[in-house]
Request: fold
Amino acid sequence: MIACVDVHYKKDGTAQVACLLFENWSDSKALKELTTVVSKVQNYVPGSFYMREMPCILEILQMVQDAIDLIIVDGYVWLSPTKKGLGKHLFDELGGKTPVVGVAKSFFRNADSVAISVFRGKSKNPLYVTAEGMDGQEAARLVKSMDGDHRMPTLLKRLDQLTKCSQSLANGNEFRQ
Reply:
């Protein structure tokens, strides 16, 4: 099972967290959609974004009852050859057993030697793919193969929508397709 996770921070100090589960990179619909609201979110610390994001991601992953073979994060696994991104911190937190692929929409200034630009659809703007626990070129190929005709794959766009859903979602909400 592949899990995609994302977090959206709200002005009230909470975070809405979502996780999509699917089996194949080419799937157009998730098998499961999970959401939760984390009520106490750490403040942002410059240079340590992962410290704010990690508790939220770990909370939603605890809700997953399926075996996870790979995790996709919204962001970078590596920020440079020597600087860990959110995905590498997650990989380490999970004991280095589950590959993590980072898909970022914005270029990080030192990531040019670690991020692979992936152009999808007719977009002139790439996604930036990094990985740990698997080959980066293979991760980029798989992201490129994801469903959808636009820059953002269908499932990653859906994930983003779930985190920004205007309705209040109760903890542990699960949606099945």
